[in-house]
Design goal:
- With 425 residues, the protein is of the alpha/beta class.
- The protein has two domains: 114 residues, no CATH class; 281 residues, Pectate Lyase C-like (3 Solenoid), CATH 2.160.20.10.
- It contains six helices and 33 strands.
- α2 runs antiparallel to α3 and α2 runs antiparallel to α5.
- The two termini are 13 Å apart.
């Protein structure tokens, strides 16, 4: 099975944003102004100090919006020009006694004029602006989204650990929602709260090493452009509970089409324990995959439903691993798949319909125990390439072929209620 999705958004940002600690510079008390004879000169210097902050902020935003010079998403800038500019401006403010209101007006005007190229740059601009203007929240807690509030602004202003509570109803987004901190988005129920997105590339991207949680909501993609539901990189950790991801659109060249895609290469993302936790969630009508896991990501999936996804319900790529249990796969072209050198564990789940119940390619080596496969039109399980692993406790019903093993594959066979056939690689 061909892997898709490798050309999605570059979302790996190893350096943290630097702006939250700067708020006091703007909202604190200014020194006493000097006599009016020097007011004009002082005003010019104060204006120049504000312009210096804007220039540094502009560079930060621009760098996050640019391709990272061939790397896998590292921001172009090194060092911290924004912190330097703020420290310099603070000294000028304290020395000259800059009028806080006038300084704030200059800063707000300059920040508003910064160009933003792409969803990541826009999110960084929102975050930088909120921090510098003092509208970012400094403490975690619940933040109930009020009528008329912009979810992108709220997410950009939220501090680490915040739970954003979304009311029942539909929230329409025409641009990617970028999650820069480890926050929770909690709806009123999977059938009550819907984030409806027409964004290209992704409805959401996760750009933080902290855990991002989605609970009790639906993410529905309704745009015409290729897009996935949620995309995250090697450093990401995501937890979904009571969530539906639906309608992802696939494009040419491996773009889009996944309900959830944890992106990485080789073993990137490994060594951190479980990086994707899914409980009681639904992945349906996604053009490529319900869930795709790459690199060294490790998953824990329980009581999930994968239905009517175009190519595969759940796919493990590269060196990914983890367990799937108590889940159902219905009318996906392929129910479960593993390729590369992935080593997932598939337990006590049911696969119905589609072409193939479970497919294993390349050097993947899954542990399969307790699958029930019904009505697949081609085969229940296919081991291709040089794949290995083991299969036991699996039953096959109303399938033309049970377990098909290529001449180069070598899985360990336990007790199964399926016929076994050998074939060419």
């Amino acid at each position: 099975m061909a892997a898709r999705g490798g050309m999605l958004l570059r979302v790996i940002l190893p350096r943290a944003l630097v702006t939250f600690g700067l708020v006091v510079m703007l909202v604190g008390c200014a020194a006493t102004p000097e006599p009016s004879a020097t007011a004009t000169k002082n005003a010019a210097e104060c204006s120049a100090a504000a312009a210096g902050i804007v220039k540094a902020a502009d560079k930060v935003v621009t760098d996050y919006g640019q391709p990272p010079g061939g790397s896998t998403g590292t921001a172009a800038t090194t060092g911290d020009p924004l912190t330097d500019a703020v420290a310099k401006a603070r000294k000028i403010r304290d020395r000259l006694g800059c009028d806080p209101a006038a300084f704030g007006v200059e800063l707000k005007k300059g920040l508003a004029a910064i160009e933003r190229d792409g969803p990541l740059a826009s999110a960084v601009w929102r975050r930088v602006s909120a921090s510098l203007l003092g509208t970012a929240r400094q403490k975690a807690g619940e933040w109930v989204l009020a009528a008329g509030e912009n979810l992108q602004d709220v997410v950009a202003r939220a501090s680490e650990g915040t739970t954003v509570v979304l009311p029942a109803g539909t929230i329409d987004l025409d641009a990617t929602l970028v999650l820069l901190e480890g926050i929770t988005l909690r709806g009123a129920g999977r059938d009550a709260t819907t984030i409806r997105s027409t964004a290209s590339d992704a409805a959401m991207i996760v750009v933080t090493a902290s855990v991002v949680r989605l609970e009790n909501l639906t993410v529905e993609l309704i745009g015409a452009q290729p897009a996935s539901g949620l995309v995250a990189g090697p450093s990401a950790s995501v937890a979904l509970s009571g969530v539906r991801m639906a309608g992802a659109v696939a494009g040419v060249g491996g773009v889009g089409g996944a309900g959830v895609y944890l992106s990485a290469q080789g073993n990137a993302g490994s060594g951190r324990g479980t990086t994707l936790e899914i409980t009681d969630s639904v992945f349906e009508r996604n053009a490529w995959a319900g869930v795709a896991v790459a690199g060294g990501h490790r998953v824990s999936i329980r009581s999930a439903t994968f239905a009517r996804n175009g190519e595969v319900g759940l796919i493990f790529l590269d060196q990914s691993s983890g367990s799937v249990s108590g889940s159902t796969f219905t009318d996906n072209k392929v129910g479960l798949a593993a390729t590369g050198s992935a080593t997932p564990t598939w337990l006590a789940s049911t696969v119905t319909g589609g072409s193939v119940g479970a497919q294993v390619d390349a050097a993947a080596a899954p542990v399969i125990d307790g699958l029930t496969i019904r009505g697949s039109t081609s085969a229940a399980v296919i081991f291709g390439g040089t794949s290995g692993g083991s299969i036991g406790g699996t039953t096959c019903d109303n399938v033309p072929y049970g377990i098909v093993i290529s001449n180069t594959a070598a899985p360990t066979l336990g007790e199964n209620g399926c016929t076994v056939a050998r074939g060419p690689a």
